[in-house]
Amino acid sequence: MSSQAEDCKFRILVADDEQLMRSVIGGILTEAGYEVIEASTGEECIQLATFEKPDLVILDVIMPDIDGFQTCERMRNIDDICSIPVIFVSGLDNRFSILKALRVGATDYIIKPIEADDVLGRVSSLLAAKSLIHDKINLLRLNEAMVDQVKKFIDELSIISTVDNLKSDIADHSVTTFEHLNIVRECINNFDEDGALKAVTDAEMSLQFADRVSQQLNEFAKIVDQIHKMMVVEPEKSDGDQSSESLAKASSDSVLGAKASQAEVDDLLDSLGI
Questions:
Q1: Residue 230: what are its φ and ψ, rounded to 5°?
Q2: Strands annotated E in 8-153
Q3: DSSP secondary structure code for residue 40 in this structure
Q4: Domain edges within the chain
Q5: β-bridge mates for residue 156, sequence order
Q6: Integer CA distances (angstroms), 47 to 39, 42, 52, 162, 259, in order
Q7: Residue 13 — φ and ψ, nearest 5°?
């Protein structure tokens, strides 16, 4: 487990009034590669959670100032930290205590004495679930940003108005070159010289129009290709830009891989000019 989590940068706040218990839990987590923050009271736990923004809190129930139930309940009413998963660790194994913990916002409940595998398994599971939510939000942000980029690109090139004009031109030139040539043939058969000359002129204009349409369609094809590249091709790497590797980190749902910070996602959005 420790080798798999060596690169993790998840921070876990352990709140327990007993130094021995903090050392035991902290040792298990540190050995597994997690960063550990300690608090000895409920008030200190709330303060550290607000300031440090840990990825998860392991909380004792019985503490000298405010107990774990009150601590968790207050955390759930603070916007900045209300979504942090909280695991209660307690010797209280009765149904009432467990239900009370869940009612005040606990995510999980471990009964003492603790076992390392049990703690690490639950921590890993909760962090994986949190990462999935975190990653989906970031991917939605990226998707929304890319759609906005494409819309902006289309607006800057006046693509919509150009397409409308092209549709109007095609409607106005609905008679094909072959149809003009048929008119020429009919005029010649009827000895209508003026009509034949006009039909030849119209045929030439139709060919010119077809050439213009072809050129515009080629331009549209290039634009569509550019939009496609914007959506699927990796941005070029540079010292100041985030590459697709950052996106891969941001979209990973694995707790065992290196955790992408929100700053990495924000930098990626900045590199896209968003």
A1: -60, -35
A2: 11-15, 35-39, 56-60, 86-90, 108-111
A3: S
A4: 11-132, 137-271
A5: none
A6: 9, 9, 8, 58, 24
A7: -95, 120
Residue 101's alpha-carbon distances to 37, 81, 213, in angstroms, are 22, 17, 70
* Residue-wise pLDDT tens digits, 11-55: 999 999 999 999 999 999 999 999 999 999 999 999 999 999 999
Dump the DSSP string for 123-192: HHHHHHHHHHHHHHHHHHHHHHHHHHHHHHHHHHTTHHHHHHHHHHHHHHT-S-HHHHHHHHHHHHHTT-
Q: Which residues of 114-144 are buried (b: 16+ CB within 10 A; e: fewer)?
A: eeeeebbebbbebbeebbeebbeebeebbee
CA–CA distance from 114 to each of 4, 38, 157 (Å)?
22, 18, 64
Distance between CA atoms of residues 50 and 71, nearest Å:
12
What CATH number labels 11-132? Answer: 3.40.50.2300
Query: What would the pLDDT profile of 212-233 be if each residue is shown by its tens digit?
Result: 666 766 776 676 666 666 555 4
- CA dist 82 and 85 (Å) reads 8
pTM for the full model? 0.55
C-alpha count within 13 angstroms, C-beta hemisphere, residue 92: 18
Q: What whole-number distance in Å separates Cα of residue 94 and Cα of residue 105? A: 17
Residue of 210, 224, 228, 226 lying closest to 166 (CA atoms):
210
- Residue 45: name the closest of 98, 20, 81 by CA: 81
The answer to whether residues 87 and 109 touch, using CB atoms and an 8 Å cutoff, is yes
